[in-house]
Amino acid sequence: MSIAQELADILEEIDRPGDFFVAGQAELLAPGIEVDDVGPIALPLLPAQARQLIKAASRAPYGRGADTVVDTRVRRTWQIEAGRVYVGGKHWPKTLAGIVARAAEGLGVEGPVAAELYKLLVYDKGSFFVDHRDTEKSPGMFATLVIALPSRSTGGELVVRHEGREAKLDLASADPAEVAFAAFYADCVHEVLPVKSGCRATLVFNLVREGKRGALAPPAYDAEAKRIASLLAGWAGELADLDARHAAGEFSDEEAGGDDDPDEHAPPRKIATLLDHAYTPAELAFGNLKGTDVATAKVIVAAAAEAACDVHLALLTVEESGSAEYSGRDDWYKRRRRGDDGFEASDFEVSEVIDHTQILSAWRPPTASRFRSAIWRCMAKNCRHPTPSTTWNPTNSISTKRPATKARRSSGHIPAQPW
């Protein structure tokens, strides 16, 4: 089995997108927020209203075993129960639905997801919450969604950890027309770092899968990443050995898998595999990938880094030319005699492909500054940019030195999707 086929087989197991957390910003169009005993809340949150909220709030407790306790050495935060908080306005349902949809997609969750308001939390200077895990607060809950209302504050970053990985999220935003949000799986350890200045208010929601029961865990592909890293490391070692033997004059360029006339038994100089979605040159970037492409990208980038290989996105264009046969309903000669030359492409079927070309273009590294030298090294070794391929098929390789590239194959022209 070729290395390209082995890689394709492993990637087939990556069938669910998402990560243990997701964060972003969303447009906020004048929501109406009212709190019992306080009244309407203006945004960005002003210090005077923050003091009013704190006066109406209670100290937030935390769970310790089967007990719920208040200990400001562990959690120094103020809370107002959901039943005393009213969030509305003409645009709020659409805003919340958009945030929930982005959170569900980022967490890799399919099917209807509902957001149940749990509490309004208020953080003043010095507020914090040490690392902890959330408990399931309602049937079907799988994650927590935090929406930080606009305020002038610093510090208070949300730190989320899961299986040796960590994300530090700054949810501060003073723009009254924008909110920052973060969602994470309930079993993730997380903490809120001390607020250094100002005050902050957050709406905390339970994310619930409607009609679903049972625990839902974050997508995890560590095993696949390790298998791919081992595969790539073996491939890189084989290439290095061949290059050393070639330099010593043991065999010809063709036997070493050269670009011009590669030997079919030599290892490929580049491995190409396909993404699921199509991307235009303008949107082609690792940060713009969609669906399972996101998970696939993370796995390959991590594996390539461990194996000391370069990885890129690129667009694949497939061009084919040859002879075609008329397959329309009307008789060809009758149409010619009456001068009807308004034929459509669908009137013809390809009978023979004479010329077949694939071109990789618009190469994109995961991080431009980190990988720029790798691109120039590749070009210095006769890596054409864009790079014509040889004998393409979905599991075959394309010549160059070591970047893995994803692209989609199709008849005709395709606005590619690679890697």
Please give a structural write-up.
The chain has helices at residues 3-11, 47-56, 92-107, 222-247, 292-306, 332-337, 368-380; strands spanning 21-27, 32-35, 39-40, 58-59, 62-64, 67-69, 75-76, 78-81, 85-88, 113-123, 128-132, 141-148, 153-155, 158-162, 165-169, 178-185, 189-192, 195-198, 200-209, 271-273, 310-326, 348-364, 387-388, 403-406. With 419 residues, it is an alpha+beta fold. It folds into 2 domains: 3-13 and 219-406, no CATH class; 21-209, Jelly Rolls. The protein has a 7-stranded antiparallel β-sheet with strand order 1-16-12-19-10-8-4. Strand 2 (32-35) and strand 3 (39-40) form a beta hairpin. Helix 1 packs antiparallel against helix 4 (222-247) and helix 4 (222-247) crosses helix 5. It is elongated and about 80 Å long. Residues 368-419 have low confidence and may be disordered.
* Overall mean confidence score, pLDDT: 79
What characterizes the major β-sheet?
7 strands, antiparallel
Our estimate of the beta-strand percent is 25-35%
Contiguous uncertain segments of 5+ residues: 368-419
- Structure classification: alpha+beta
How far the N terminus sits from the C terminus, by CA atoms, comes to 22 Å
Tell me, briefly, the overall form: elongated
Tally of helical segments? 7
**Annotation, overall tally of beta strands:** 24
The order of strands across the largest sheet is 1-16-12-19-10-8-4
Chain-wise SSE layout:
Elements: H1 3-11, E1 21-27, E2 32-35, E3 39-40, H2 47-56, E4 58-59, E5 62-64, E6 67-69, E7 75-76, E8 78-81, E9 85-88, H3 92-107, E10 113-123, E11 128-132, E12 141-148, E13 153-155, E14 158-162, E15 165-169, E16 178-185, E17 189-192, E18 195-198, E19 200-209, H4 222-247, E20 271-273, H5 292-306, E21 310-326, H6 332-337, E22 348-364, H7 368-380, E23 387-388, E24 403-406
Parallel strand pairs: 20-24, 21-24
Antiparallel strand pairs: 1-16, 2-3, 2-9, 4-8, 5-6, 7-11, 8-10, 10-19, 11-17, 12-16, 12-19, 13-18, 14-15, 14-17, 21-22, 22-23
Helix pairs in contact: 1-4, 4-5
